[in-house]
Amino acid sequence: MEEEGRKLLEEGIRKKLISPGRGELSTFPDGTKVVFHYRTSLSDGTVLDDSRTMGGRSKPMELILGKKFKLSVWERIVITMKQGEVAEFTCDTKHTALYPLVSQSLRNISIGKDPLEGQRHCCGIAQIHSHHSLGHKDLDHLQANPQPLVFAIELLEVLTPGSFQLDMWAMTDKEQLDSVPQIHEKGNALFKEGKIKEAKEKYYNAIACLKSLQMKEHPGDETWIHLDQMITPLLLNYCQCQLLQGQYYEVIEHCSSLVFKYEDNLKAYYKRGKAHAAVWNEKEARADFAKVVELDPSLEASVNKELKALEERLRSKKQEEKGRYKGLFDINARPAAATTG
């Protein structure tokens, strides 16, 4: 341990043990998942972030070693710790320059926002040397005035490679592609159980994974087309969940994007027709249902059922409006007599 402490000091890191851990020190091979709570402070004790309170909830950090995490010093310090150990690490400025960007991402995640919001138009190093605001005064100040930071770490878990399911962001391209059919099947199973919200989330995750891979390809290339064909059934399933949740305009948007690319996609026309009908777009609904019958005449009975339901809803709406405005424009109606007091 003394040798490790000396090495850390040479690297500009000072470790202070708060509470010893248990068991043996892991070898931490690449692919190891570490789960830990952290508190980040300035040298004067001012707390910047605390994973136990960030975003109003306690959520530990999860890190996969060897994946080139932006704040590499966190990987360096956790591999000196045993599971259950609590320690403070004071790290020189050379290790903390990118912390403002990492903190911004973690704060975004904690409140459900895009972790890359505000970072899309320039690289990390460019932002460090620019006047770009991170949306937080303390992080803007830290970005403009780089300084040593103190990280208080409690190492909760050390999971060896293969003992846990990787998150999408931590997977290789091949691992992501191989995982999509499994996610699709899980979504289908949840849908059959009536767990629409959970099924929709699975479909969304699979689509996001494929979209991420597709962005690396040139539109129209063979691989891009193959990925797009994998996305299509997932997007249709996602739209079915949205229909059941009453998100009709989103369904119209997604299905329109599909029929723009695939003019013979019967399911896209059918779901868009149902969504149009739900929001009183009679003309558009009839056009989509007509296209469905054109593509597959065997579905005429199903389409007629949808059209009948639409017509009944339209009649009910007209009756309701007629009753609502009855007498409003009746020329024989007498105005109430004025009274004086």
Automatic annotation (TrEMBL):
<dbReference type="InterPro" id="IPR019734">
    <property type="entry name" value="TPR_rpt"/>
</dbReference>
<feature type="domain" description="PPIase FKBP-type">
    <location>
        <begin position="31"/>
        <end position="90"/>
    </location>
</feature>
<keyword id="KW-0413">Isomerase</keyword>
<dbReference type="InterPro" id="IPR001179">
    <property type="entry name" value="PPIase_FKBP_dom"/>
</dbReference>
<keyword id="KW-0677">Repeat</keyword>
<keyword id="KW-0802">TPR repeat</keyword>
<keyword id="KW-0597">Phosphoprotein</keyword>
<dbReference type="InterPro" id="IPR011990">
    <property type="entry name" value="TPR-like_helical_dom_sf"/>
</dbReference>
<dbReference type="Pfam" id="PF23322">
    <property type="entry name" value="PPIase_AIP"/>
</dbReference>
<keyword id="KW-0697">Rotamase</keyword>
<keyword id="KW-0963">Cytoplasm</keyword>
<comment type="function">
    <text>May play a positive role in AHR-mediated (aromatic hydrocarbon receptor) signaling, possibly by influencing its receptivity for ligand and/or its nuclear targeting.</text>
</comment>
<protein>
    <recommendedName>
        <fullName>peptidylprolyl isomerase</fullName>
        <ecNumber>5.2.1.8</ecNumber>
    </recommendedName>
</protein>
<dbReference type="InterPro" id="IPR056277">
    <property type="entry name" value="PPIase_AIP"/>
</dbReference>
<feature type="repeat" description="TPR">
    <location>
        <begin position="266"/>
        <end position="299"/>
    </location>
</feature>
<dbReference type="InterPro" id="IPR046357">
    <property type="entry name" value="PPIase_dom_sf"/>
</dbReference>
<dbReference type="InterPro" id="IPR039663">
    <property type="entry name" value="AIP/AIPL1/TTC9"/>
</dbReference>
<comment type="subunit">
    <text>Interacts with RET in the pituitary gland; this interaction prevents the formation of the AIP-survivin complex.</text>
</comment>
